[in-house]
Design brief:
By secondary structure, the chain is α+β, with helices and mostly antiparallel strands. The protein has 22 helices and nine strands. The protein is elongated and about 130 Å long.
Length: about 575
Amino acid sequence: MEQSTSLLHRLNELNAIGVALSNERDINRLLEIILIAAKRITNSDAGTLYLVDATQQVLNFEIVHNDTLGIALGGTTGQAITFPSIQLHDATGKPNHHMVVAYAALNGKAINIPDAYAAEGYDFSGTRAFDHKTGYHSTSFLTVPMMNHENETIGVLQLINAKGYENSEFHQLEIDWAEITHPQISHPANVSSKSAQGQAGQGIVPFSLADQHLVESLASQAAIALTNRRLIQQMEDLFESFIGMINTAIDDKSAYTGGHCERVPVLTMLLAEAASRTKTGPLKDFVMTDKDRYELKIAGLLHDCGKVTTPVHVVDKATKLHTLFDRINLIDERFEILKRDAEITMLRELSEAKDELTRARIQEAFELRCQYLDKDRNFLRHCNRGSEKMEEAEQERVRQIAQYRWRNPAGEEVNFLTADEMENLTIRAGTLTAAERKIINHHIEVTITMLESLPWPKHLKNAPEYAGGHHERMDGKGYPRGLTRDQMSVQARVMGIADIFEALTAKDRPYKEGKTLTESLHILGQFKLNGHIDPDLFDIFVREKIYLTYAQQFLDPRQVGEVDESKIPGYSP
C-alpha cells in the first residue's frame, strides 16, 4: 500500500506540474518550472536546461541550478550564463557524439550515467574542470531530450547527482513503474548494484529507471508546453508585426500620424498602470492583469488604423489651401496680375496726363495700390498657415478681398477668390474645412469596422471597444456613437485622454507648435469641467505626474517647464 501511495503521489505531482506548465505564459518562468520540477521529482542536486538553436546548430545554456554551490543562473534570476554553447557538429559536419547532451539531442535518446568519472565513450573533461575549480563532485547524470510534436529535439534536460530518499520505497517501485510505463524496457545494464551502493554511501546515488521515466514524461510535457508557448509567442509577434506594418503604411503617408500612432499607446499604458495602482477613490477597484495589459497595448497600437484609408492630402493638410499642392501660389500669381494690370493702367494714364502734378498723383496712386495688394497678399499668406482661432474681423477681411475682380486665363472677369478658396481661408481653427474634418473623423468609423470584422481571441475581444472609443465624450457629445461615460470602459476613457494630450503636446504637426505642459494641462482641465474627458482619470493623470513622465520621453525641454498644479482648472488632488 505504501508503495502504491508513493507512486501515486509522484504521479499526481507530475500531473500538477503539467498543469503549471500549460498555464505559464512567460518562457523564462516556464523553463525554470521545467528544471526545478525535474530536480524535485528526482531529488537531484543540480541540473541544466539547454535549448537547441537550429540555425546555429548548438545547444545554449538557458537555466543552471546547483543547490550545493548555491548557483542559480538564467531564467528569471537576471544572472547571465557565460558558459559557451555546445556544438552539435564539429567543423567537418560530423555529429558531436562525445558530449552527452549533444548525443541526447542528436539521437533523441535519454542517457543515464551512474558515475561520470567511470563512464566511457563520453567527454567529461569540462565536468572535471568545473569540479576542480569549484570543489564539487559530479557523479550521476541523467540526460533527457525534449522532443516536440514533429519529433524534433528542441531542448535537453540534464540532471546531476541524485541524492536518493531517506527510505528506499520509491526505488523498490522501479520494477512496478517500469512494467506500468515501459514493460519492454529493462533496468540499464550499466547501473550496477556495486556502483549504486558506493554512491549511496556518499549520499549520491544513480538515477533510477523510475527517475528516468518520470523525467522523460516531464520532458515530453515540457516540450509540448514550450512549443505551444513559442507558437503563441510567434503568433503574437506576427500579429504585432502586422500592426506595425499597418502603422508603417500610415507613417509613409504621414510622418505626423506615424508619430502619433507610436506615442498614444505609450501614454495610454502609463495612465492605465497608474489607474491600476490607485487604491482609493472611484477607480480603486480597477486592476489590470498581464492579459489586460496586452489587450490594451494592442488596442493602443490599432487605435488609428482606419487612417490607412484617409486621403493623404487631408491627413497632411499643413495649410488651409493645401490639397495636392499649396494653392497659395496661385493666389500670389493673381496678385501679380492685379499689380501688372494696375501698372498698365498707370502707364496708360501717364501717357494721357497733361502736367507733372497729374503724373505725380497717378504714380502715387499706383504705388499705394501696390502697397495695399502686398499687404493683402501677406495677410492671406498669414491666414493660410492656420491658427487655433481666427477672429471674425479677419474672416471678414478675407471675404472683402475675395470680391476683388481679375481676368482669368479664359479672359473672364471673375472674383479674386473662388468659393472654395474663401471657405478654406476663413476656417476658424486649424486647416480643415467641415467636409475635410468629416473625412478625418471618418477614420474612427473605419477603425471600428476593421477591428470588429476580425475574429478576436477571447483575451483580445475588447480591443475594438478600447480602440474605437477614444473620440467619445463623457457627456455623450463625442463620435462616432455618442457614448456616455457609463457606456465606456475605463480603458477606452484612458485612451481618450492619451489621444488628446498627445495631440496638444505634439511638436511635429505641420500647422502648429507643440503646447507646453502648463498650456496642455489647462486645456485638459477645461475638458474635465465641460464633460469631455473622464474626471477621475484626469486627476490621476495629474496626481501621478503621468504628464511629466511622458514629457521627459517625448517633449522638447522648452515645452516642459514648471507646472503649478494648483492652477489647473478642475484638478482635485
